[in-house]
Amino acid sequence: MRPYSHLPYSHNSLKVFEAVARLMSFTNAAQELNVTQSAVSRQIKQLEQELNCELLIRKHRTIELTEQGKDLYEVLRQNFHNLDSLISQWKAPAKKRIVIKSALSYATRVLMPNVAMLNEKYPEHEIVIIPSIEEDPPLEYEDSDLLILNTRQRERYIGKPGITFLRAEYMAPVYTELMSEQNIQIEDVLNLPHLHATLDHQDWKLWLANANLQGKKKGRDTVFFSLDLALSACLSGQGVTVTDLLLVLPELKRKFLKCPENIALQHSDWQYFCYQKNRSPIANEILQWLVEQTESDVQQLKRLCGEFAWQCDQVDWNKG
């Protein structure tokens, strides 16, 4: 016994009947289905014969549905609607994408906390954030909407088409209260465990060279090869790390991280730029937001310097 044995052999006749019942017209149904009116009439008669019941009452210029016809139309209407909705989901066009490539730490600590805001502002687009670990990638091959670079080669980018300077880095050592309940003095930095984000210890070497601390470094070194890992270790009380303070503003404001007493902020060799290859309204808006967000972060850092008496003589707030 075949399944659905009570259904008519030709499912096309059900489609024709649904159109006739919905439009209440043989002529209009024929136009919608792109067939002749006589073909529509034959399909309905064949369906009535197979079901052994009358579905339509034919009058001189109009038609009416019988009770069986009304019942059949309601079932067909609901199921055709469900089928159409299901198939439309399969065929729904993919959302347009906004692709932002970014230096890893910037993506993690600046972009990621703002993803919800970007999704809300651009609901018709899919936000794609790609961490970039390549240093100074060739711009001529870039295909993202925006590329946020962290580079030591300022001369390679400044003044070039599509390049916007974002900011310098503002460096200082940070630690957490898990490491010491007492405020750490700047001189104590030499004796504490040092956490490094790079194998060459460059951030620490540069900061120590400009800090003019008296004495010999005694603290042990641990390399994590990632600023995010170094910061995680710092937050768990494993040591002190030198970092760009703009990347840890939330932790500084909440005092999850602290700077040693009498600390002096310094610039590193690195700066942030944003590259926009192709201009579009949305990419323009996001770039403007990045610029404004950066300016706001710098102002917040200035206020923290005043609040905690951090020295800023060595930094240029307008460096660019």
Q: How does this model look, in words?
A:
This protein has 320 residues and is α/β, with parallel strands linked by helices. It folds into three domains: 11-85, Winged helix-like DNA-binding domain superfamily/Winged helix DNA-binding domain (Arc Repressor Mutant, subunit A, Orthogonal Bundle), CATH 1.10.10.10; 96-167 and 271-296, D-Maltodextrin-Binding Protein, domain 2 (3-Layer(aba) Sandwich), CATH 3.40.190; 168-269 and 300-308, Periplasmic binding protein-like II (D-Maltodextrin-Binding Protein, domain 2, 3-Layer(aba) Sandwich). Helices cover 41% and strands 19% of the residues. It is built from eleven helices and ten strands. The protein has an eight-stranded mixed beta sheet with strand order 4-3-5-10-6-9-7-8, with helices on both faces. Strands 1-2 form a two-stranded antiparallel sheet. A hairpin with a 4-residue loop joins strand 1 (56-58) and strand 2 (63-65). The longest helix is centred in the C-terminal third of the chain and has 28 residues, at 281-308. The chain is elongated and about 110 Å long. The termini are far apart.
